Amino acid sequence: QIFNQHNAEAPNLEQAFHRMAQMEPNLDHDVSWFLLPSYWAKMVVALISFLCFANSYDGDFVFDDSEAIINNKDLRAETPLGDLWYHDFWGSKLSSNTSHKSYRPLTVLTFRINYLFAGGFYPVGFHVINIILHCTISVLMVDVFSILLGGLQFSNKGRRLNLAPKSSLLAALLFAVHPVHTECVAGIVGRADLLCALFFLLSFLGYCKAFRENKEGHTFSVFWVLVSVILGAIAMLCKEQGITILGLNAVFDALVINKINLLELIRKLLSKDKSLENAGLLRKGLLFRITLLMCGGAGILYIRWRIMGTGPPAFTEVDNPASFADSLFVRAINYNYYYSLNAWLLLCPWWLCFDWSMGCIPLIKSVSDWRIIALAALWFCLIGLICQALCSEDSHKRRILTLGLGFLIIPFLPASNLFFRVGFVVAERVIYLPSIGYCILFTYGFSLLSKQAKKKKILAVAVLGILLINVMRCALRSSQWRSEEQLFRSALSVCPLNAKVHYNVGKNLADKGNQSAAIKYYREAVRLNPKYVHAMNNLGNILKERNELHEAEELLSLAVQIQPDFAAAWMNLGIVQNSLRRFEEAEQSYWTAIKHRKKYPDCYYNLGRLYADLNRHIDALNAWRNATVLKPEHSLAWNNMIILLDNTGNLAQAEAVGREALELIPNDHSLMFSLANVLGKSQKYKESEALFLKAIKANPNAASYHGNLAVLYHRWGNLDLAKKHYEVSLKLDPTAPGTKENYNLLRRKLEQLQKKGG
């Protein structure tokens, strides 16, 4: 009879339960905001997050995308899939001394899938996946914020109740449209942060499911706790920050599930009170669950440590200058200043930059530096919030502030320099997850203002204005991430002291052929950072091409003096010395480059050119052969071998080398041309003709191709065809050496034949 009565009243019981839950302190009571059904709220968040970043869908590969995607062999089908588990994010072996130790195999796997489905390096597919991921994460944030802001309660049917629908919608919108997320969404390498955030949130939601009472009446499910640990491990395999979710799950368990008052617990521990059971420490299996989380986290970290190796990543002073400061005081004060800059980017994301290193943020070296104010402001706010989170008599306030601070600080810890040196000063991508905490605190602050405000609608309009400004800022910033030129130039006004910004602008201009403008930016990069060897190397290269050899030599010599193992600078110095006809020094520079980079095909190629200039033909051939062994598609080295053998009368050997080269690079028209010349001299006219015609089809505007084919026809006796190709060659290049003389000889011969025929 009791059982039947319970069934009959089930629907009313659920409604009563929901009403009781709403009677508890709730943000939504004070928040003047839109109330939408859960489905519509998620649709709105998805749509707005899509609008923010939609214009990045057809952007290029920019900045770090080149190294992580285009130059990463782990994306290619020929690389064994198993190699992903032993390589870092950039495709280097984790055991290598040059590895950054960034272990993100699942992120690289998604890049590989993108590459395979697109059939090559087409950025659209990569960008679309990033946008979809951010939209999905923003939608999940509606559920996450409803738990963090409204608490975790279930109906008698096991359905989770959304006790803060207005607040969770506002917080999710704040997250979805935050401009600081642009780097993660519009920059393809930001996929690591997006995937990490996705599994981070799924781990949290999975942990929450563990507390849905099951049919057996158990208060929590070990299965869902373990699922949460596994999802945390997956998040870490996407990016290192993912492991922090296990700590946040423990904090959530203690504060929300067990409703522990941290201040009361600390007092009991200090007074050695034995009634810790009443404080909630042992209640509801908290210690057991925290033990599971700790064991899972320790196991994950141990496995990663074994795979990665014990050596820390190797970073340079320009990456993170504060970490190289001798004084502990200077390190501490600058780290804290970096924290304040990250906080400012969350509060006012107007000045955004793709790179904050290399002089962008000068070191604070004394307490007289006015920037100390930023540190004081940061810690004043943090200490105030921590005091409120610990000491407030309002349990609802304590819970929200503690969770907000937890989600703000804990995911940021791996980037804080506290446990290990990181390879950046400030990086917008690392505050993707901490922005969750910011959104919680912002929403709570808005609720407090709404409670005090007489004109709540004006406050709501102000928040709408902030959201609208952020949407426009996201759209503008996304457009800047569409190309390297726009991205690099956008940083000039934000970080004018950043040598890397000027270097990247110069490199972009040089790639487009604007050498004069590139020189200006390279010079500025070297002025800002007199030890910037890469800027010196690139500037030296341009000056070399402009025949300003003495200044080029000075720059390259300085670069190798600053960094003696800089192989590229040694090679370029050798090229300059060769041009200055200082052959012995050039040879020494080339061999020094090869010493520092064993597999350096371009250096062997240039060494071969030096030997050819010195008539050391065997040495030249050996150097070019080394280049082709290291890089079988090195067309210039193959070509030079064929030409040298041809010029020295070794036609049979030249033919063999040419055929070998074309087997490896079958569509290279310059190789076809060189081999056709050899075959013509060997009187293999038919085969030579076929190769000439194939080369002309591939490159119809090459005057020399038509001119040499005309010579072949001339020798072969096909005079009309010879005349035709001589004329085409002269039309393309009227000053072509030898062609005019050969054409005049042919015309005289044709005239003589006509006279004889007459």
Automatic annotation (TrEMBL):
<dbReference type="InterPro" id="IPR011990">
    <property type="entry name" value="TPR-like_helical_dom_sf"/>
</dbReference>
<keyword id="KW-0812">Transmembrane</keyword>
<feature type="domain" description="DUF1736">
    <location>
        <begin position="311"/>
        <end position="383"/>
    </location>
</feature>
<keyword id="KW-1133">Transmembrane helix</keyword>
<feature type="repeat" description="TPR">
    <location>
        <begin position="533"/>
        <end position="566"/>
    </location>
</feature>
<keyword id="KW-0808">Transferase</keyword>
<dbReference type="Pfam" id="PF13432">
    <property type="entry name" value="TPR_16"/>
</dbReference>
<feature type="transmembrane region" description="Helical">
    <location>
        <begin position="430"/>
        <end position="449"/>
    </location>
</feature>
<keyword id="KW-0472">Membrane</keyword>
<dbReference type="Pfam" id="PF13414">
    <property type="entry name" value="TPR_11"/>
</dbReference>
<feature type="transmembrane region" description="Helical">
    <location>
        <begin position="33"/>
        <end position="54"/>
    </location>
</feature>
<feature type="repeat" description="TPR">
    <location>
        <begin position="703"/>
        <end position="736"/>
    </location>
</feature>
<feature type="transmembrane region" description="Helical">
    <location>
        <begin position="403"/>
        <end position="424"/>
    </location>
</feature>
<feature type="transmembrane region" description="Helical">
    <location>
        <begin position="243"/>
        <end position="266"/>
    </location>
</feature>
<feature type="repeat" description="TPR">
    <location>
        <begin position="499"/>
        <end position="532"/>
    </location>
</feature>
<comment type="pathway">
    <text>Protein modification; protein glycosylation.</text>
</comment>
<dbReference type="GO" id="GO:0030968">
    <property type="term" value="P:endoplasmic reticulum unfolded protein response"/>
</dbReference>
<feature type="transmembrane region" description="Helical">
    <location>
        <begin position="220"/>
        <end position="237"/>
    </location>
</feature>
<dbReference type="GO" id="GO:0016020">
    <property type="term" value="C:membrane"/>
</dbReference>
<dbReference type="Pfam" id="PF08409">
    <property type="entry name" value="TMTC_DUF1736"/>
</dbReference>
<comment type="similarity">
    <text>Belongs to the TMTC family.</text>
</comment>
<feature type="transmembrane region" description="Helical">
    <location>
        <begin position="188"/>
        <end position="208"/>
    </location>
</feature>
<dbReference type="InterPro" id="IPR013618">
    <property type="entry name" value="TMTC_DUF1736"/>
</dbReference>
<dbReference type="GO" id="GO:0004169">
    <property type="term" value="F:dolichyl-phosphate-mannose-protein mannosyltransferase activity"/>
</dbReference>
<feature type="transmembrane region" description="Helical">
    <location>
        <begin position="286"/>
        <end position="305"/>
    </location>
</feature>
<feature type="transmembrane region" description="Helical">
    <location>
        <begin position="131"/>
        <end position="151"/>
    </location>
</feature>
<dbReference type="InterPro" id="IPR019734">
    <property type="entry name" value="TPR_rpt"/>
</dbReference>
<protein>
    <recommendedName>
        <fullName>dolichyl-phosphate-mannose--protein mannosyltransferase</fullName>
        <ecNumber>2.4.1.109</ecNumber>
    </recommendedName>
</protein>
<keyword id="KW-0802">TPR repeat</keyword>
<feature type="repeat" description="TPR">
    <location>
        <begin position="601"/>
        <end position="634"/>
    </location>
</feature>
<dbReference type="GO" id="GO:0005783">
    <property type="term" value="C:endoplasmic reticulum"/>
</dbReference>
<feature type="transmembrane region" description="Helical">
    <location>
        <begin position="372"/>
        <end position="391"/>
    </location>
</feature>
<keyword id="KW-0677">Repeat</keyword>
<feature type="transmembrane region" description="Helical">
    <location>
        <begin position="458"/>
        <end position="476"/>
    </location>
</feature>
<keyword id="KW-0256">Endoplasmic reticulum</keyword>
<dbReference type="InterPro" id="IPR052346">
    <property type="entry name" value="O-mannosyl-transferase_TMTC"/>
</dbReference>
